[in-house]
Amino acid sequence: MMPIRIAPDAPLEEMARLAIAVHNAVGRKPIVMKVRGRAGVLVEDGLAYESVHEGEALDSVFSGDGVKQVRVSGGRHAGATMFASAIVNGIGQRVAAIGVIDTLGMLSLEEYVALDDHIDRQLYSQK
After folding, report:
1. N or C: which end of the chain has fewer CB within 10 A?
2. Which CATH architecture has domain 12-124?
3. What is the tens place of the pLDDT at every residue in 43-100?
């Protein structure tokens, strides 16, 4: 199996593999993932789709620190809350962003931060 590589030039297919894994790990909540300056991928109901609108909500995490709570501005999940975080490479650059769309309003910021830490440990343990 090919390793998942998250980099500024990562194809949507590679991002989709990671996003589907996170989607399944968080009870199949919708997941959005993107690299800076490109459309993202939306995963819901186990399927990945190219996404522009939901991905725009992720742009805010490329600056600043930590997890951000944002509203999705367009697309199927317009108005929903998304908990989003940057994915940082080994030299500290924010190369991608991932968000969990809270369609039921049941995920607290603390739960998302714990999930984000768990994902980071899994990504960086593969080096």
Report:
1. N
2. 2-Layer Sandwich (3.30)
3. 999 999 887 666 677 888 888 777 888 888 888 888 888 999 998 888 888 888 999 9
